Amino acid sequence: MLPRLLTVTAIGTAAVLVGASAAQARPHHDEPDELTAVLETPALWDEDDADADDPAIWIDEDDPEDSVVIATAKEAGIYVYDLDGEELQHIAPKPAPGDDHAPGRYNNVDIVEDFELDGDEVDLAVASDKGMDDLGIFVIDDGELTEVTDPDGGWIFSASQEEIDGEHTAYGLTTWQDDDGAYALVSRNSETEVALLELQAREDGTVGWERIRDLALPAAFTLPDGSTWTTCDDPGEYAQVEGMVVDERTGTAYLGQELVGIWKVDADLTGEPELVDTAVEFGQPAVYDPETDECVAGENPGFGGDALRTDIEGLTIYRTKGKKGYLLASSQGDDTFAVYELQGGNDYVGSFAIGDGAVDGTQHSDGADAVSASLPGFDGGLLVVQDGDNTPEGSDEASTNFKFLAWEDVAERSGLDLDVARR
Question: pTM of this prediction?
Fold first, then answer.
């Protein structure tokens, strides 16, 4: 199989696609394997303004059976579930600062381990808050969350409440750590921008952040035929990033630009970003129709990849021995998950879908998280994914939730490695 890596040289807000041609770089996309989930969390109903989005798995080192899944639900806040999918805790979002403003909206969440705070080493859950343009930071103690966000942490991207109301605010998030500290990568809604924040302990026992640097991914691309292509969206909105994950073993960040593809770049946002893979729709012309509030697509010229259909959403990593492992990406447009080798040129391995079984299948999935640790009921590791269309049979209301899959099932059906990290 030929490498999937395409080199993109950024020139201002444009990028030039060079290297292998689209036809050479795109392998055949076989029919995806269909897996089934082991269990699911309770439904979150649209009528209650609850919308499942992104999970993060916290492992209790001393008592693995007490490990939990921490999950965002946008305007409904954060939920904590046990390994049976039962709700343990609910945290409401921050209230709106005024009648004309939006309340808090927790979008993505991730884990920081062994963070030094107030003389102790603690684990943190860190969430992006789109409604407030900041972070929500919580200490995890025996699976229970207690907020420790610095109230004076400040806005991440906005200079005023008026700008926050425009909603070009904090969106996607992932965390990572090295010997020097703990960090969060936060993307900006409706923009191509990603910010690097350093998490900092305060003397009063709270946790704040300092913005270190930004990376603006391209908004326009020069295609192999010499034409220029930009993604189609509502006026004033650009190809944003949401799903992100960092491979701490190599210091590499993977960024899912929803309408473009998956980028790789140094986790500290230095160096030149490279495209691991592009969406099938990459390079396809489209025009925004204000009457329908939709983009009308033209003929696809075939410059894109074969595995990902827009939107490209949740990214997660299943780690195996050494620097090996797998990068998983939610291909929302065809309800599948694409799998790539973590090492080397990030070769495409295959795709799988989650169909009906003990619980219903998964469609339009947003966030996902995977661990290779052996957990009760999930001896070979756990994969948790958001289900964007969890509608029980006979119900007219729309709902979302989270599905739990055993990695043993994923590996067996998809021909992937099984590498259990015993604890």
Answer: 0.93
